[in-house]
Design a protein that fits this description.
Arc Repressor Mutant, subunit A; about 5% strand; elongated; coiled coil; WH-like_DNA-bd_sf; double-stranded DNA binding
Length: about 210
Amino acid sequence: MSKKDNGATLILAYLNEKNRPYSAQDVFCNLQKQHGFGKTAVVKAVELLALEGKIKEKMYGKQKIYFADQSQFKNVNDTDLKAMDSQISQLSAEVQSLTQSCRQLDAKLKELNSQLTTEEMMSEIQELKKESSGYRARLEKIKSATNHVTPEEKEKVYKDRDVYVKEWKKRKRLASDMMDSILEGYPKSKKQFLDEVGVETDEDCKVVVPSI
């Protein structure tokens, strides 16, 4: 494209190729990004082309519309139009089918990419075998141990625990009742009394009586 024709040659080729009406603004928007045309240059180019008779110009309301000179194209009869429509329908169906196939292939590709490779799977299998071997060794060690706790021993431990917890609660309640009786005639606070007699409560030791 030379600076002299101000893009007119390229714009003429564009209008002939598309063979549809465009305003100067449409031509500018469609070609500006690719070719860097300025709007003023596009307006001058289409006006020049129309003046030279290379394209046609029509007023559409307050806007000028430019389109290719139809005399340069051969006449198309109804048979040709029907053949073209049939071809368009066929190609559209093919495009739709290919688009669907591409989507399916893309989905399959994403699925395959998310899976482990053969090398990664072999490495993972070796790690799992090693982990499984460790668990088997631990299981055999547990089975061969001679210090298992029998159900009877386990039950006795739980019963003893219940007895100790009940006694703990009983003694705590008795101690609390005794302190309450003493504090009725004690001139200082409960905390001062506990400090003086050297008594540590469960709360001081941060322990809680277990539930039964």
